[in-house]
Design goal:
The protein has 304 residues and is α+β, with helices and mostly antiparallel strands. It is 18% helix and 34% strand. The strands form two sheets. Strands 17-10-11-12-9-13-16-15-14-18 form a ten-stranded mixed β-sheet. An eight-stranded mixed β-sheet has the order 2-3-4-1-5-8-7-6, sandwiched between helices. It is globular and about 50 Å long.
Amino acid sequence: HGSNMKIQSLSYLLVETTNLQEWVDYAKDVVGLMKNDSLSNEHNLYLRMDERSFRFHITTGDSQKYLAAGFSLSDKAAFDEAKSELDQANIDYEDLGDEIAKLRCVEECIGLNDPAGNRLELSYGSKNSSEPFVSTQDIKGFITKGLGFGHVVFAAPDLEPAHRFYIDILGFGDSDYMNFPMGPAPDAPEVKLNFMHCDNPRHHTVALYESPIPPSGLIHTMVEVNDIDEVGYGLDRAMQNNIHISSSLGRHSNDMMVSFYMQTPAGFDLEFGYDGWQVDWDNFEMQKSKIPSFWGHAFSPPEN
């Protein structure tokens, strides 16, 4: 035990698409993200949700899927410490070099996989845009300051080795372990999730869900707005644009988030919520949850 690695936050998400225009429309008409025109081109869409140069980078390729999640460290010293922790633990990683670092708008960047094969990037020195952030849907800002852009939920077919990697190697802390039966049958399989925080007050920045990796490569990612009305307007926009609502409005039991889930053009879900718990970790004991939500969050799989 005892990694000294201090990951500050989830800084960006990389996604591959076969149809960039779908993402252009989705970001603009539904989510309310701002296109970074100076970085985007016919094969790359850089999307902003705050002062950062980008939070989502969508790039064209031959599939629709999650590529990687970027996590930031505070400075070069913390970044070098992270690399030496990985070296000591014999974890393979690659230095992604200056060209990729430039594309990510960071100083330096490494890439690695967790034990389940989920792709991660660690970096420092994320650059801000010179233009002010303006939402295409008049959203009065997303909740990111000191918290990162949100959270990601990964699949891990073998939960515990993946969980240990985030705790022992990447220095995350346990927030919650959730398990509940999938359905009312007495022999229904258990759903199991680990929720983990990094060096910020967000209840979780990474969660692991015990399941095979889905075709999209990701279970969901989350963005947070300022109030219930912003969530409601977002739900209206999703429905008006015929976006599949994967989970109805509800309030989670562990991070208290009020949210709905909608499908992104890549197939994974985007949780769109507000009122997530910002935790004082000095006065916190890890929790064990038996229910995912106090109310709502009725799940509806897409009709294929």
